[in-house]
Specification:
Chain lengths: ~250, ~475
């Protein structure tokens, strides 16, 4: 009986979910790898079109208070083709927002992955709130058919100095539950993406919720101290996500 | 301004100004519809093209689509225009320019000499009169060659960017994707990481890791961590091994402000990288990415159609003698390019326009999971671009980018194109493959078994 040869890729496979060492049929993908790819793509496309259960999310956020808004994009097909509508509140929602005096506001947007929001958003908010006892934090806003810039309109209407918008990132083939966070100082409509800080790839095989909470709280504290976010706010400690990284909308991949 | 019109039967199509004419002449795409500037019928689209065909090319030198006074990209385009280089085509209309570009007379020498005389608006205009195949044929006659440690863009060659991204920038994970790509002969344009985290120490750690791989195997390649330009400048100040400076750029001053950059900041970055003198055979030190829709996304398009604004970004790139530029064509999403038909067209337009302007254009042949496209569509675009002489293509393991969450090409695809079309990589890199004994008697890079000396030598000593 011959011994199975040692896999030289073994120690590398555990370090990445990238599709390395797939093998070749001539220059092409082997059949097994080809079909696995097609299955992953089919599932990712299905994920784009599913919806967040906001009732369950509100329960998960309790005892934190939450309230619900909807963007001006009425449904998913409109949301996909009209990003401008996903960045604005529908007038009925705008009228319901309570004004207050807040240091920080959390807005949870469905974005392009309901699963990311369902799984990761509530634990991340809880972790942050417990780390930031010195800040006045407003009720959590749950936003349907929403994009990143919607947080600016919500936060400026509610009188918040800083907004952390949590959003479901566009599903990849191997990460359909990835959450991103965009932090914006002095939020108001018209803010450029370079005026935000981003933490991305928050999911079970990416950045952990605990590490994300640490970073977000550090950034929020520094943003409040320096009174700014964006390219001018850089962290020297390892692993802070950068600006200009709204992958759903911009081609900037820095 | 009088505007333009075209009478077709009893129907008169009116266009208020040059911007409106250009937008209506564009092939249909979701971004222009989102901006509210697209033609509202197919007939109107063709009517606009008929008017555009009779428009003197030199009109674009006197009628700015984005105001000269308030936009530094327009000022760059107008102030750097080379009237002498423009002279051979100065008398032509846009339609005559198309015919000339397709003629035998417009050869590589003529097109190279013409490039400084062309503006982005001129090449965007003529592209709107071209079919996809025209875009391929004219681009194939253009040659833009750049150098750092390899020579990219030589006729008959196809280079590639190896993109070993990892969702948490794990060094072992990035090394795994890098070594896998090298076994397919990928990376002669650049080994370039999109970092998940944009801070100076993390950026330096990745640069040092890539530099260690390069020097350990003595590979003639350049590396890049695609952080924001300000991060890379700081890394240079701290002594990091920076080969190329990356930045995303766009076609208006306001859109660039959205990316946190100005022309003077890019110039500062170029000087900083050149001062390191790390290139062995050339000093093209900049790497830019662009993509249709970025200006609209930043609310900075000023009513100009997305393809024309995109071409203006190439004037920005051209000013800094980049080694590499690529459009991230299908990355931006369906609100700008809805489906594979639109993505394919845009990829060919971007390559054509950049090459005519003298920009070393590559492409990330790609799509997102919310666009109506799949890998079959990418097969079409990659083959057309390779035939058109694209400087480089981007490839990731198994076409799946696990950090940016989209699909590009697989290492397999680029290798297959090279063998199919007989387009080897950059000569310095090809020589390295040959010296390492990786090529077969037909100069192909065959699949080396896991237990072969090639694989064990590469993986055995490659712990980061």
């Amino acid at each position: 009986m011959s011994e199975t040869p040692k896999d030289p890729w073994a120690r590398f496979r555990s370090a990445t979910r990238a599709r390395i060492a797939l093998g070749r049929s001539g220059d092409a993908l082997p059949t097994k790898a080809l079909l696995e790819f097609q299955l992953a793509h089919a599932r990712a496309r299905d994920a784009v079109h599913s919806a967040v259960d906001f009732d369950r999310l509100a329960t998960d956020l309790a005892p934190l208070e939450s309230l619900r808004v909807h963007s001006a994009a009425s449904d998913r097909p409109t949301y996909l083709r009209r990003p401008d509508l996903g960045r604005r509140l529908d007038p009925a929602s705008a009228a319901t927002l309570p004004a207050g005096e807040w240091d920080l506001l959390f807005v949870i947007a469905d974005g392009l992955s309901a699963a990311a929001v369902q799984v990761n958003a509530a634990p991340l908010v809880h972790a942050c709130v417990s780390r930031l006892p010195h800040l006045r934090i407003g009720p959590v806003v749950l936003a349907a058919q929403a994009r990143v810039a919607l947080g600016d309109e919500v936060a400026s209407a509610m009188g918040a100095r800083l907004v952390a918008l949590l959003v479901g990132e566009r599903p990849g083939l191997s990460a359909a539950e990835s959450l991103g966070v965009y932090l914006t100082w002095d939020p108001r409509p018209g803010r450029a993406d370079s005026e935000r800080n981003c933490i991305s790839n928050i999911h079970s095989d990416g950045l952990s919720k605990r590490a994300a909470a640490d970073k977000l709280c550090w950034l929020a504290t520094e943003a409040a101290r320096l009174k700014l976010t964006g390219v001018a706010l850089k962290e020297d400690a390892p692993s802070l996500a950068g600006p200009d990284n709204e992958k759903n909308q911009l081609p900037d991949r820095s | 301004m009088a505007g333009y019109h075209c009478d077709l039967g009893r129907q008169r199509h009116r266009f208020d100004d040059l911007k409106a004419l250009m937008a209506c002449a564009s092939p249909r795409r979701s971004g222009d519809e989102l901006a509210g500037i697209a033609a509202d019928s197919d007939e109107r689209r063709v009517a606009a093209r008929m008017v555009l065909a009779d428009l003197p090319l030199k009109t674009f030198l006197t009628e700015a689509l984005v105001a000269y006074e308030t936009d530094e990209v327009t000022r760059l385009i107008i102030d750097s225009h080379d009237a002498e280089a423009f002279r051979p085509v100065a008398h032509m209309t846009v339609g005559q320019f198309r015919d000339w570009l397709l003629s035998y007379e417009a050869d590589t020498v003529a097109l190279t000499a013409l490039a400084p005389g062309l503006t982005p608006e001129m090449v965007a205009a003529v592209s709107k009169l071209m079919r996809n195949h025209d875009l391929v044929c004219v681009a194939a006659k253009c040659s833009v060659v750049t150098r750092f440690r390899t020579t990219v863009g030589l006729p008959g060659r196809l280079s590639s960017r190896l993109q070993p991204n990892h969702p948490t920038d794990d060094p072992t994970g990035i090394a795994a994707s890098t070594l896998d790509g090298l076994l397919y002969g990928i990376g002669d344009a650049v080994i370039g990481i999109n970092p998940a985290t944009d801070n100076v120490p993390a950026c330096i750690a990745l640069l040092e890791m890539l530099d260690a791989v390069r020097t350990r195997f003595d590979i003639p390649v350049q590396s890049c961590v695609l952080a924001h330009v300000t991060t890379t400048i700081q890394a240079i100040e701290r002594g990091a091994p920076v080969d190329l400076v990356f930045q995303s750029i766009a076609g208006t001053e306001k859109a660039n402000a959205g990316f946190g950059v100005t022309l003077s900041l890019l110039a500062e970055a170029q000087e900083a990288a050149k001062s390191l003198k790390r290139g062995t055979i050339g000093d093209n030190v900049m790497y830019f990415e662009t993509g249709q829709g970025s200006a609209l996304s930043a609310d900075a398009h000023f009513g100009v159609d997305q393809q024309t604004v995109e071409a203006r970004a190439y004037a920005v790139a051209r000013a800094f003698d980049p080694l590499l530029v690529n459009t991230v064509v299908g990355f931006i999403g369906p609100e700008y390019l809805y489906d594979a038909k639109q993505i394919t067209r845009a990829g060919l337009e971007d390559h054509f326009c950049a090459k005519l302007l003298g920009v070393p254009m590559g492409c990330d042949v790609c799509y997102t999971n919310h666009a109506e496209a799949d890998q079959d569509d990418m097969d079409v675009l990659m083959t057309m671009l390779a035939t058109a002489g694209v400087n480089f293509l981007i490839a990731v393991p198994g076409a799946d980018d696990v950090m940016l969450n989209y699909q590009s090409l697989s290492y397999h695809d680029v290798l297959g194109l090279r063998h199919l079309l007989k387009r080897p990589p950059a000569p310095e890199f090809e020589a390295w493959l040959e010296k390492a004994g990786w090529l077969d008697e037909q100069r192909r890079l065959p699949p080396w078994p896991d237990q072969s000396l090639v694989v064990s030598a590469l993986l055995g000593s490659a712990a980061p």
